Amino acid sequence: MQCGSTGLGKKSLKMRLASKNEITKLPPTKPPEGSLIMYCKTYDPVKWCIWISVEPEDLWDVIKIAFSRQAIGMVIKTMFGKILPLKKASKEDFQMMASLKNR
Q1: What would the pLDDT profile of 56-75 be if each residue is shown by its tens digit?
Q2: Which of 26, 46, 58, 87 sits in a 20 to 30 Å window from 36, CA-based?
Q3: Where along the chain do its domains lie?
């Protein structure tokens, strides 16, 4: 994952989700009670341990993003790209399909 910030200028903060057990030093601040907490470890340009809270009033927006066309398209491309690598059909592919059709 990447995150942009006005504080980072033209750089983006690269991170990955982590379990709470992987976080060696938790930030001194505490996430709000009753919120969904995600822990992340940043690795470029700095190494930080951070938490991100999704509070109940933000949950509907997170759900809308998760079920957006862009998110569903990304999931489909990722899943089928690994199972059946997608490629543009070549001339040979069309010839092979035509020969199967003519049988």
Answers
A1: 999 999 999 999 999 988 88
A2: 46
A3: 1-55, 68-103
Q: Read off the tokens for 84.
A: 């059946």
- Burial (CB < 10 A; 0-12, 13-18, 19+), residue 82, is exposed
Confidence of residue 79 (pLDDT cuts 50, 70, 90): confident
The span from the CA of 103 to the CA of 100, in Å, is 6
Q: Could you give the count of Cα atoms lying within 13 Å of 51 in the half-sphere of its Cβ? A: 20
Q: How many angstroms separate the CA atoms of 29 and 49, rounded?
A: 12
Q: What is the rounded distance in angstroms from the CA atom of residue 24 to the CA atom of residue 48?
A: 10
At position 71, the amino acid (one-letter code) is A
